[in-house]
Design brief:
146 residues, mainly alpha, 5 helices, elongated
Length: 146
């Protein structure tokens, strides 16, 4: 499966306003949304946190492990997305790399993660933020042909 969002073909506009090339191949809203969510990184994070939670001896060690895992996976997210979207001859799709890198901490925030142990974390705010970000990210369309 190709992880890169299909942006379709560039469309040339003739002087009379007619398109020379069809738009075929452009990704749907749901397809773009799935492409922007770094599901592999979320799965990696959840697995690593689960392992740390079962192996940590103290609550301090668990908290430290949660933050370290969060930052490591967040750093890995743009590298991974650059790699998987760069397999296309067009090169990496930078908007997808950037949006996936922004989506990861929002998903972790929404699931609680180490943020849940902070005094300023509220689950209902996390849910609202996740809902709005999900809708907004799905609306964004990369430039055709990129």
């Amino acid at each position: 499966m190709n992880r890169r969002i299909d942006t379709g073909k560039r469309v040339e506009i003739r002087p009379d306003g007619m398109n020379v090339l069809p738009l075929g191949g452009e990704e749907s809203y749901l397809g773009r949304l799935i492409g922007y969510i770094p599901s592999e990184m979320v799965a990696l994070y959840l697995f690593a946190v689960g392992m740390a939670a079962s192996g940590a001896q103290t609550s301090h060690a668990k908290l430290l492990a949660f933050w370290v895992i969060f930052f490591l996976v967040w750093i890995l997210t743009p590298i991974y997305m650059w790699f998987v979207t760069g397999r296309d001859p067009k090169g990496p799709l930078w908007p997808q790399v950037i949006l996936a890198s922004l989506a990861f901490p929002i998903w972790v925030y929404a699931t609680g993660g180490p943020f849940a142990l902070c005094g300023w974390y509220f689950g209902w705010i996390a849910s609202i933020v996740l809902a709005f970000v999900t809708v907004i990210f799905g609306i964004y369309r990369p430039t055709p042909g990129s």
